[in-house]
């Protein structure tokens, strides 16, 4: 059964919004998660409301690799200059990650970690220490200390319903209409990454113009096809035993500089999804139950596409194809077979 995705911590996001509205901020904020668009948005919102425009005197930023813990602690202890707060931002320190490493790649020793954890308790109320991390281990003492002395907010990709509302709100600001079918097709093509959605949506907004409309043909013409959509088409070709089409799509992806191993991983993921759909069909699950089991609430239209594709294979055939992808990956990694040729042979065997 499909594992459910981690959901964004809505309560933490609400707290951040409340802090911004009140103008009263915590000493520590930790922002992390797979949805980098939301991480960036909340980082910017906190920065804009803690620091006045152009106030560089009270803002210190440490990007990945440039952090000195002693310097960070010294800055955090410095009183703000004619302002309510000093903001110290530390990006991708690695201090919260599994097997945490300090800048420069050396493993963080226990004494250094202990020093920073103790320091968190001593941060003055006039300082906000903002960590923005790509990788966080919630079991780590650093994470637990950030939660104890401040706030940790995790940002996951929103579900389909939330993304639909977000897209509609952005279009509504421009008085642009979009049909339900076009909206579903748009989100199918973009996936759930908000950075990509925002970029592709800008094209549609510019094309439609204020007061205009977006149709499904406009989506097809303007929105870039993502890798996952091409994999879907490849598996369609495999289901039809159209080796020429499947291998042509593979060659197209290689020409676009996609890594063969990434292509193989996505093929395996697609067949694994079809296997799960086949299992649910065998169990006689209703569409709402299938949406819930696959963590695809509100995307019955997409599940119907998976069902159509899954019917081209037996459940056993799908299992064999998933296992073949895994074996191919192992053979490539151990040097038994060439990477590009190995993936190509796997595609042919899936016919």
Helix-strand makeup class: alpha/beta
Q: Please name the CATH architecture of the largest domain.
A: 3-Layer(aba) Sandwich
What is the makeup of the main sheet?
5 strands, parallel
The end-to-end distance, rounded to whole angstroms, is 25 Å
What's the total number of strands?
Answer: 7
CATH-level-4 superfamily name of the largest domain = P-loop containing nucleotide triphosphate hydrolases
CATH class of the largest domain: Alpha Beta
Helix content: 55-70%
Mean pLDDT: 89
Unreliable segments (pLDDT under 50, ≥5 consecutive)? Answer: 1-5
Report on the architecture of this protein:
The protein has 351 residues and is α/β, with parallel strands linked by helices. It has three domains: 10-154, P-loop containing nucleotide triphosphate hydrolases (Rossmann fold, 3-Layer(aba) Sandwich); 160-222, Helicase, Ruva Protein, domain 3; 227-349, Zinc Finger, Delta Prime, domain 3. Helices cover 58% and strands 9% of the residues. It has 16 helices and seven strands. The protein has helices spanning 10-22, 36-50, 69-77, 110-122, 141-149, 160-173, 180-190, 194-208, 216-222, 227-239, 243-255, 260-282, 287-293, 300-310, 315-333, 339-349, and strands spanning 28-32, 59-62, 86-91, 127-133, 151-154, 177-178, 213-214. The strands form two sheets. A five-stranded parallel beta sheet has the order 2-3-4-1-5, with helices on both faces. It has a two-stranded parallel ribbon with strand order 6-7. Strand 3, helix 4 and strand 4 form a beta-alpha-beta unit. Helix 7 packs parallel to helix 9 (216-222) and helix 15 runs antiparallel to helix 16 (339-349). The protein is globular and about 70 Å long. The two termini are 25 Å apart. 29% of the residues are buried.
